[in-house]
Recover the amino acids of this structure.
């Protein structure tokens, strides 16, 4: 399945939102606001805001930092794409 650049960007955005929603849930469980999370990550609250609003790309490095700071692990599963 070949996707054009626009479709690719949409899929990247959706995948990023899925990961960030899991981060958000973990932060809520630990009663952390974005400023607290930024402090744990040694990042600015503005930087995290840009990540959560899709203005900056989500990286694997940041995903690992989220896991370490919030003490959880992402679990990856797959399923077939139904066309």
């Amino acid at each position: 399945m070949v996707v054009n650049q626009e479709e690719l960007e949409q899929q990247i955005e959706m995948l990023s939102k899925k990961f960030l929603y899991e981060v958000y849930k973990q932060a809520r469980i630990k009663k952390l606001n974005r400023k607290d999370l930024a402090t744990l990550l040694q990042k600015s609250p503005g930087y995290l805001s840009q990540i959560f609003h899709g203005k900056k790309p989500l990286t694997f490095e940041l995903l690992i930092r989220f896991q370490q700071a919030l003490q959880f692990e992402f679990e990856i599963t797959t399923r077939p794409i139904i066309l």
Notes: Residues 23 and 66 are 7 Å apart (CA to CA).
